[in-house]
Amino acid sequence: MNRAQFLKLVLGGAAGAALAPLARAAAPYDFWFTRLKYDSGDWDVDQRMPANMITSLIDYTSLRVDPKEHVVALADPKMLLAPFCYLAGHKLVEFNPAERRNFEQYVRNGGFVFVDDCNHDIDGLFATSFERQMASIFGASALKKLPNSHGIYRSFFTFKDGPPATGLELNGWGDDLVHDYLKGIDVNGRLGVLYSNKDYGCEWDYDWRNKRWLAEDNTKFAVNIAIYALTA
């Protein structure tokens, strides 16, 4: 199945229905949420966030989505099989040799990691230590600002102004800045690491049944992230 065919399946329609049997024969799920557990820091944050992302993918797409969150140690080779990985925290990020090896192998071989700074700042412990890890693995200039024209802002829904702001930023928490860009690391022309100082994890950390009270579903950007991870 090529990328165009997969997009038709994701978006539904007659073509998608015709392709569905092929996809079902290939794997039980198109998407499963993998949270990366690492030895340093506090990896088990925003515990209700995965349920909201999963619910949105079920609501808006035709993907076959595993309804459960999977927690896998970054040092475990099983993480190399995931279509999407999530890594977050407030504290120190300092990979041990196995974690570093798997992270690099996963990204260089076409994997996708969404990394979210729960402190939502640019000079806190998580931000400075994670960025230091990325520089040591991929090079000092690898982590770059994403332009608002990047494909991740149009992979499903359209965000013409780039990354949507979070209520945490608007309330002046963290470093009292609204971060109007995300960063990323490209490998062979494809985004392999998406890095956020906006604390989307906390923004999406609520009982999924409370979505009905929102004027606008704030997890729509999570759908874009997942679709990009699967199709870019």
What does this structure look like?
There is one protein chain. The protein is α/β, with parallel strands linked by helices and 232 residues long. The chain has one domain: Rossmann fold (3-Layer(aba) Sandwich). 35% of the residues lie in helices and 17% in strands. The chain has eight helices and seven strands; from the N terminus they run ααβαββαβαβαββαα. It has helices spanning 3-11, 13-26, 49-60, 97-108, 125-138, 167-170, 200-203, 220-231, and strands spanning 31-37, 65-73, 85-89, 113-117, 144-145, 183-187, 190-196. The chain has a seven-stranded mixed β-sheet. Helix 3 (49-60) links the parallel strand 1 and strand 2. Helix 1 (3-11) packs across helix 2 and helix 3 (49-60) packs across helix 8 (220-231). The longest helix has 14 residues, at 13-26. The protein is globular. The two termini are 14 Å apart.
Tags for this model:
about 230 residues; Rossmann fold; 7-stranded mixed sheet; disordered N terminus; alpha/beta
Strand content: 15-25%
| H/E series | HHEHEEHEHEHEEHH
Helix/strand-derived category reads: alpha/beta
CATH class: Alpha Beta
Q: How far apart, in Å, are the first and last alpha carbons?
A: 14 Å
Q: What is the fold named in CATH at topology level?
A: Rossmann fold
Determine the fraction of residues in helical runs and give it as a percent range.
Answer: 25-40%
What can be said about this structure in brief?
This protein is of the alpha/beta class and 232 residues long. The protein has helices spanning 3-11, 13-26, 49-60, 97-108, 125-138, 167-170, 200-203, 220-231; strands at residues 31-37, 65-73, 85-89, 113-117, 144-145, 183-187, 190-196. The protein contains 8 helices and 7 strands; from the N terminus they run ααβαββαβαβαββαα.
